Amino acid sequence: MIYGTLVHETPAYYQRRLDSARQIVTLIRAMENEDFLCLPLLFGLCWIIACDVLIAEQKRLRRLSIPESECTQAELDSTLDAMARMGVFYPTMKIEVRNVTRTEDA
């Protein structure tokens, strides 16, 4: 997933990053509770980046008054829920959920 300042300067990179985040959401939504038993922490760390991307997209859509921000919010909620479920096994993920939630509110 592309992450950095170049993304904000190049629309193609921004879209690629957004598409990657949405692919992560698709995978998360397909997961069962049992799947969380064997996930490494690295997955959760990738989800943090996906959350950052979705928050940026949501802010962009709201700034432009585009109604699709509701869809982006649902994607973000799915990702945060998965991170919270992972937090049962990795307590640091609970902290990250709080951090992402604070970022979203800012």
Low-confidence stretches: none
Total domain modules: 1
- What is the element string, with H for helices and E for strands? HHHHH
| Alpha-beta content class | mainly alpha
Distance between the termini: 24 Å
The number of strands is 0
Mean pLDDT reading: 87
Transmembrane segments: 36-55
Keywords: Membrane, Transmembrane, Transmembrane helix
Can you give a write-up of this model?
- This protein is mostly helical and 106 residues long.
- Helices cover 76% and strands 0% of the residues.
- It has one domain.
- The two termini are 24 Å apart.
- The mean pLDDT is 87.
Task: Furnish the topology, listing elements before pairings.
Layout: H1 5-9, H2 11-30, H3 41-63, H4 69-86, H5 91-105
Helix pairs in contact: 2-3, 2-4, 3-4, 3-5, 4-5
Quick tags:
106 residues; mainly alpha; membrane; transmembrane helix
Summarize the structure.
Helices cover 76% and strands 0% of the residues. The protein is mainly alpha-helical. The chain has one domain (5-105).
